[in-house]
Amino acid sequence: LREPGIDRSSDPLLWWGTNANRFPGLAAQARRHLCAPPSSVDSERTFSVAGSVANDNRSRL
């Protein structure tokens, strides 16, 4: 909590890259949660399921 904050325009992944040795556990979590997913399969699956639920044939649910 005593660490100074980073500027909003800076890249948090670069900050974690230089400070990972100081905070190894938090750096692993940051790597996991700040990175973009490698594919869009999950989001496409969600839209596909939503499209089959909300269509003209089932509009009277």
Question: Could you characterize the architecture of this molecule?
Answer:
The protein has 61 residues and is an all-alpha fold. The chain has one domain. The protein is 52% helix and 0% strand. The protein has helices spanning 12-19, 24-34, 41-53. α1 runs antiparallel to α2 (24-34). The protein is elongated and about 55 Å long. The N and C termini lie far apart (51 Å). The mean pLDDT is 78.
Provide a concise account of the structure shown.
This protein is 52% helix and 0% strand. It is built from 3 helices and no strands. The N and C termini lie far apart (51 Å).
Features:
61 residues; mainly alpha; 0% strand
Mind sketching the topology for me?
Elements: H1 12-19, H2 24-34, H3 41-53
